[in-house]
Amino acid sequence: MTAPQRVSYRMESTLESVNKAEEMADRISAQAGFDEDTRSGISMAVREGMINAVLHGNAYDPAKRVNLTMEQSGQQLIFTITDEGKGFVPDEVPDPLAPENLLKESGRGIFLMRAFMDEVRFRKLNPGTEIILIKRLQGNDLDRQEAST
Amino acid sequence: MSMKASTRQVDGITIVDLSGRITLGEGSVILRDTIKDLLGKGQKKILLNLGDVSYIDSSGIGELVSAFTSVRNQGGELKLLNLTKKVHDLLQITKLYTVFDVKDDEAAAIGAFTR
């Protein structure tokens, strides 16, 4: 991976921010050397993290902001998303794959983040929640990155 | 790219051709309103053509589930047609692929509705 790079954005609690974050995540994933399928998963995980922050955390409150940090570090991409909402306990979110929850309309965001990233961590802030999403480059991605440099 | 929905009738089945992204916001709302409108008109046999749907997020998945249960609760049937690989994979990992009746041929899908 190229030299360490870190960018941070302070964003409004809007759908536009969610869409913008998804686009930026796709772009930085491409620069890092991830293949198209993996990039799609990464940008979806970031989108779901942003939805969590904008909708469930800040509840679209115009007075509250979401911070997004994207960092290339070693051979991994790290996305950190923080909101200023009331917070939640991730372990209390029902398993969306349980038969009794399959037909629920919501509750799949955290599952999708975990499905597409190598590591997903939550930390309670005061106030708010911090979500850390990590994706590591694999062998093929590293070859692709070397070829592009 | 925002989402578009258009409907057509084939042999008593309402086919909804969707294109774009079914995501939180406009895309999910368009799908919800389309289904609500069809059920309001008594059109309860619905085939959602997702062939041109490039992307679905958790909100869009929720909207598909909502459409499925709304139609079923009114005694109707809802099937999915022409999933892209991305949408197919998403329904697989969320275990919804077996919940929905998924078809890849329009004529066969129309024939599969209960008469």
- What overall geometry of chain B do the principal axes of the alpha carbons give? globular
Distance between the termini of chain B: 37 Å
Looking at CATH, the homologous superfamily of chain A is Histidine kinase-like ATPase, C-terminal domain
**Architecture (CATH level 2) name of chain B:** 2-Layer Sandwich
**Sequence of strands across the biggest β-sheet of chain A:** 1-2-3-5-4
Question: How would you describe this protein?
Answer:
The complex is a heterodimer of chains A (149) and B (115). Chain A has 149 residues and is an alpha+beta fold. Chain A has one domain (5-143): 2-Layer Sandwich (Heat Shock Protein 90). In chain A, 39% of the residues lie in helices and 26% in strands. Chain A contains 4 helices and 5 strands. Chain A has a 5-stranded antiparallel β-sheet with strand order 1-2-3-5-4, covered by helices on one side. In chain A, 38% of the residues are buried. The mean pLDDT of chain A is 92. Chain B has 115 residues and is an alpha/beta fold. Chain B has one domain: STAS domain (Transcription Regulator spoIIAA, 2-Layer Sandwich). Helix content of chain B is 40%, strand content 32%. Chain B is built from 4 helices and 5 strands. Chain B has a 5-stranded mixed β-sheet with strand order 1-2-3-4-5, with helices on both faces. In chain B, helix 1 (26-40) runs parallel beside helix 2 (58-73). Chain B is globular and about 30 Å long. The mean pLDDT of chain B is 95. Chain A binds chain B through residues 15, 18, 40, 44, 47-48, 51, 55, 96-97, 102-106, 108-109, 111-112, 115, and chain B through 23-25, 57-59, 61-63, 65-66, 68-69, 86, 93-96, 99.
